[in-house]
Design goal:
binds zinc ion; Rossmann fold; 7 helices; seven-stranded mixed sheet; 7 strands; globular; 36% helix; 247 residues
């Protein structure tokens, strides 16, 4: 059984960044997992919420609805501060992610790129850095050894991917996206991805732009292969599972 874990910063990133791939690999029999680091309480679009707490509760429910539509096997939302992931303790967040990598034992970890994805959001950039360190450190006995004393085992995921894009947004901070190494055809799952994004009702003002961009560019999800457990030459891929067989 192949297991794929996505690490994101905000509710709606799971649909926007790799919703099509989650659906595709679920249809191929993989288990999929999503960990979202924040409840998205700093969002500009706040729906009917009158407080950060209320917005967090609404967005938690929206995240769960989106993950259900994306047929995610297991999802979890942590409570790190939205809009401030650059000010949290790196070792603490990476410990939380490393623990979950050791429990879930994913073959593949997906996250956004350290440029912050197309919006250049600092939280996306930090989620990328935390997930990258968790990918590497989950495999090592000398990192978070207290988790090993609790009975968890080191886990070496096979591949780490950053989601990437073939375009930049002129009205956002300048970003230098990681080059695309891996192109996944999600045309069969585009409607499902859009529908999952739509579950984020508090973010409805973003929907029109998202849908327009998805219908124009969204038939493929693009990734950058950032790390592999077996050294290899890079060849352009059309399948995240390229070179991986279930143990
Ligand atoms: Zn986001």
């Amino acid at each position: 059984m192949i297991r794929i874990l996505g690490v994101t910063a905000h509710p709606d990133d799971e649909a926007g960044a790799f919703g099509g791939s989650l659906l595709l690999y679920n249809s191929r029999g993989a288990e999929t997992y999503v960990i979202c680091l924040t409840e998205g309480q700093a969002a500009t679009n706040r729906g009917t919420a009158k407080s950060d707490e209320e917005l967090g509760m609404l967005r938690r429910a929206e995240f769960e609805a989106s993950c259900r539509l994306l047929r995610v096997t297991g999802s979890e939302m942590l409570k790190y501060p939205d809009g401030a992931l650059d000010r949290v303790n790196l070792l603490t967040v990476v410990a939380d992610l490393t623990r979950r990598v050791r429990k879930i034992k994913p073959h593949i970890i997906l996250t956004m790129g350290p440029e912050g994805a197309i919006t250049g959001h600092l939280d996306h950039a930090m989620a990328s850095i935390f997930a990258t360190m968790a990918f590497h450190w989950a495999a090592r006995k000398d990192r978070y050894s207290e988790q090993l004393a609790e009975g968890l085992e080191p886990h070496r995921a096979r591949k780490l991917y950053y989601s990437t894009a073939s375009f930049v947004l002129p009205d956002r901070p300048p970003v230098s996206p990681p080059p695309c190494t891996t192109t996944i055809d999600i045309s069969q799952f585009l409607e499902g991805k859009i529908e999952a994004f739509r579950q984020h009702r508090t973010q409805a003002p973003l929907m029109e732009r998202f849908e327009k961009s998805m219908r124009r560019f969204g038939l493929k999800e693009l990734y950058h292969l950032a790390a592999v457990s077996e050294p290899m030459d890079l060849t352009p891929e059309t399948d995240l599972l390229h070179g991986i067989s279930p143990e």
